[in-house]
Amino acid sequence: MGRSEQRAFGDLMVVLIGRLPEWQYQPDRRGASLEKMIRAQRKEFAYNLEESPSLRVKLQDGIWLDMVWAKAATLAATETGLDCFTDAVWSTSQDVLELIWLPE
Predict the structure, then answer these.
(1) CA 82 from chain center: how many Å?
(2) Has residue 104 been placed in a domain?
């Protein structure tokens, strides 16, 4: 698994996770386009895992996950105008990746 592949995988996860707070904390923005974007990102993420199973190792790397969460929190703060996401982590990475799960 090359660095560029790892970086692209991380970027994909950052965008996916970074949009979930918009859904959770700003219900007035819960439109079909946001839901479609979240689902499309999840499908792309799943496709990447299927094509490169070695990327699953990154989901177990605490340092890598901390970096992803930090970047996602910054994106969420930028997108929502709220600054309360630095410690917000959903229960598991599996929740984030489920195609049907959206935060309340």
Answers:
(1) 17
(2) no
Other CB atoms within 10 Å distance of the CB of residue 76: 25
Angle between helices 32-51 and 3-25 (to 10 degrees): 150
- Report the distance separating Cα 12 and Cα 25, nearest Å: 21
Query: Does residue 103 belong to any structural domain of this protein?
Result: no
* In-domain check, residue 79: yes
Q: How many domains, in total, are found in the chain? A: 1
Residue with tokens 């386009």: 33
Per-residue pLDDT of the chain (104 residues; tens, 9 = 90+): 688 888 888 898 888 888 888 888 888 888 899 889 888 888 898 898 888 888 888 877 778 888 888 888 888 888 888 877 665 555 456 666 665 566 66
What's this model's pTM, rounded to 2 decimal places? Answer: 0.76
Cα separation, 99 vs 72, in Å, equals 19
Kindly state the tokens that stand for 100. Answer: 């049907």
